[in-house]
Structure formats: C-alpha cells, structure tokens
Amino acid sequence: MKLLSLDIGTRHTGVAYYDSAIGVVMPLDTIEHVSEEEMLSSVSKLIQERHIDHLYVGLPLLPSGKDGSQAGIVRTILKKIEAFGTPCSLIDERYTTPKTGQSDGNAAAACSLLNIALENGS
User: Fold this and answer.
1) Any idea what the CATH number is for the domain that residue 106 is in?
2) pTM
3) Distance between start and end Cα atoms, the chain
4) What is the largest CA-CA distance in the chain?
C-alpha cells in the first residue's frame, strides 16, 4: 500500500509518503507553488509516479473544531484532487504543527498527518 499526505497551504504544500514495503513515513520535498493549478499539477504527478493507493489531506479546523476560511479552500482543492481518481480522506490537522526547530515544518506536518492515518488504521 502506497500512501501520500498533504498539508496544503496557499504557497507551500507539505508532502509525506508511505510505502508498506518499507514501513516508514518519509517527508518529501515541499511543493512550492504560486497557484492552485501549479500545486494540483505537482500532486497529480506525485500520485502517478509513486502509484498512490490513498491520499490524506490535512483539514485546518479552527480550535473550536469548526471550519474556517482555510478549511473551505482545502475542501475545494480536495474535490479537484478526487477527480484524479485516487481515494482521498481528510484528517484533522489542528495538532500536527511541528514544534520549532524542524527544517521543513510543512513536510513535518504532512508526516504527522500520515502517522495519524496509520495509527487509526485508515
């Protein structure tokens, strides 16, 4: 099973990868993008190149657990990603922000998302 997770941002999207043959969540290079289309193109390429079976996307909920404006953006992007044909799931990302000292906080957050999915048996 090959999994991918995304921590979607307006200019930077963190990415993590898991292959059950290896058994370790690995950060990938953060996608740097100036447009939604550029980010979607990069995600589509990753899905195809790595033969992804399932994609997890962080949902940036407010501390109350409700959707804010960024959650709406992520849901809209997720609908476009689902059109690629790969099964997708949302994961609450409120507690995935890495502590300071991480070299790439976006990729670290994506790794946290994927670890949550694996722990929950998703």
Assistant:
1) 3.30.420.140
2) 0.89
3) 12
4) 38
